[in-house]
Each structure stands twice: as C-alpha cells, then as structure tokens.
Amino acid sequence: DILLAQGRFQEALIAAAADDGLATSKRLAVMASAQIALGQQDDAGRSLEEALALEPGSRDLRLLQARWHWAGGRPTEARAVIDELLARDSADAEAWLYRGRFALGAGDATGAREAFAEARKTADARLGLPDQVAVLVAAVETDLMLGDAASAAQSLRVLEARSPNTFVTRFLKGRVAFAQRDFRNAASELQRALTQQPGYGPARVLLAAALIEQGSGELAESELNRLIAEQPGNTEARKLLGEIYQRLGIPTVATVRWT
After folding, report:
1. What is the distance between the alpha carbons of residues 70 and 240, in angstroms, rounded to a whole number?
2. Pick from 127, 189, 138: which is nearest to 164 by CA?
3. pLDDT band at residue 2, thresholds of 50, 70 and 90?
4. Is the pLDDT assigned to residue 147 strictly greater than 80?
5. d(Cα 158, Cα 46) in Å, to the nearest integer?
6. Is the Cα torsion angle 218, 224, 229, 230 positive or negative in sign?
7. pTM score of the predicted model
8. Phi and psi at residue 255, in whole multiples of 5°?
9. Residue 252 above 60 pLDDT?
10. CA-CA distance, 73 to 39, in Å (whole number)?
11. How many angstroms separate the first and last alpha carbons of the chain?
12. How far apart are CA 69 and CA 157, in angstroms?
C-alpha cells in the first residue's frame, strides 16, 4: 500500500506478487491496483476475478472493480458497481467520492457536486485524512466549474482548516480569488503555491492571467515566455500569450514594452 501511495506501481506489483505473507485476496488487490495504474487491464481483470472469487462480498474489492471498469472505458459498468454499493450503504463516503469523480469524467458537474456533498456528510467518520482532503478539493473544483465562487469559497475554508499551507490549498485559494475577481490576492496565493511546486503549469498560466488583470502585462508576458521555454507543449500558455499579442495588434511574438 505504501508503494501504491507513492506512485511506485511497478515496484508494488513485483513486491505483492512475491509476498507470501499477505493474505491472498489482499495480495491480489494490491496487484490489481498496480496493474490498473500501469494500464495492464487484462492482468488487472484476472487479479480482480481471483480476489472476488475468494471474497465475493468485499466492498473494497468492488470499489476496485469500479475503478477497473472506469479505467478500461466501461463507465456504465463502473457506475453500476457504485450504485450497488450505495444501495447497500447509502453513507459510504468513498463510494460517493467515486460517483462524483465518475460524474466529472462524464462531464456532469452538477451530478458530481451532489455526490461530493453526500460524501462530505460522512467523510470525517468514514474516510482517512487524504480522502477527506480529496473530497473537499473535488467540491471546490466542481463549484468553480459551475461558476459558483461563493460555494467554492465556503468549501475552501473547510479545506484550509483541514489542510493548511499545502500546495493544493494555496493553488485553490488562488483559483477562488481569481473567480471572485480579487486578482491581487489571486496572484499572491499563486506565487505562494509556486514556491512549493515551481514547475506547475496551470498555476503559472493563472498567475499570468491575474497579472494581466492587474495591469502588469510585462510581468505576465515574461512569465509566459519562461513557461513556454520550459514547457514548449503548454498550449494554455501559448494561447494566453497569443491573446496578449492579439490585444496589442502584434501578429508575431516579439518583445513588448508595457506602459
């Protein structure tokens, strides 16, 4: 589980396959999780089938099965598994979290918000801290997708109390401030976030947008040019820089003097 949490999926797979000390169903579940992450759909399916044959009523294995269906491009089957689990236990916060994520993946932001709201009802009692934070992050992001900055700010306050001074909290504080058109605070929070993850492209693009809104176009242009030099494939940075030049009537990328 530690290797999975660290994203070391190949190592987790090898370790689980060789670990005779683990219960067979647990070993198979770790293997399936790693195989899903590695894109080994057929192998993951076989591992899951063996594990479920040993523990057919396992709620954790069924959640893993839902993940496997979703990763394999079978959203109907994935949602059916989650519906079955929620019919069994309507207060299953993790199942609600999965339903919300699946709804987002299907472009249903309203359905996702409803699912995350259900997850929050029992998250403190039913989830560990990482998943509690995941529910709150998802709630903020979904509110922002729906253009509801006020609700996003409310969820953000809970997130900040639970997970202060982390990169994701600071990044979301910047996003919420931007949505509220508080561009000065948006830029400030994004700059703080970037001290923790300097190369995170979305934060740097949003910082440039906040700088533009404050009238600091030269700083924005400089930030975007640095980002594009480091990440040539960053289309959002190129698009925003192009908008700057288009606004100024400049057809080609060139040095601009901002006055």
Report:
1. 33
2. 189
3. confident
4. yes
5. 41
6. positive
7. 0.86
8. -70, 130
9. no
10. 12
11. 55
12. 34
Q: Which amino acid makes up residue 228?
A: I
Cα separation, 157 vs 190, whole angstroms: 17
Instruction: In whole angstroms, give the CA distance from residue 240 to residue 224.
Output: 8
The first and second tokens of residue 74, run together, are: 């079978």
Give residue 240's Cα distance to chain centre. Answer: 23
Residue with tokens 């699946």: 102
Q: What is the distance between the alpha carbons of residues 46 and 136, in angstroms, rounded to a whole number?
A: 34
Q: Do residues 101 and 138 touch, judged by C-beta distance below 8 A?
A: yes
Cβ–Cβ < 8 Å for 186, 167:
no
Residue 248: per-residue pLDDT: 66
Which of the four pLDDT bands, split at 50, 70 and 90, describes residue 257?
very low
Q: Three-state secondary structure along the chain?
A: CHHHHCCCHHHHHHHHHHCCCCCHHHHHHHHHHHHHHCCCHHHHHHHHHHHHHHCCCCHHHHHHHHHHHHHCCCHHHHHHHHHHHHHHCCCCHHHHHHHHHHHHHCCCHHHHHHHHHHHHHHHHHHCCHHHHHHHHHHHHHHHHHCCCHHHHHHHHHHHHHHCCCCHHHHHHHHHHHHHCCCHHHHHHHHHHHHHHCCCCHHHHHHHHHHHHHCCCHHHHHHHHHHHHHHCCCCHHHHHHHHHHHHHCCCCCCCCCCCC
| Residues belonging to the chain | 259
The string of pLDDT tens digits covering residues 3-21 is: 888 889 999 999 988 887 7
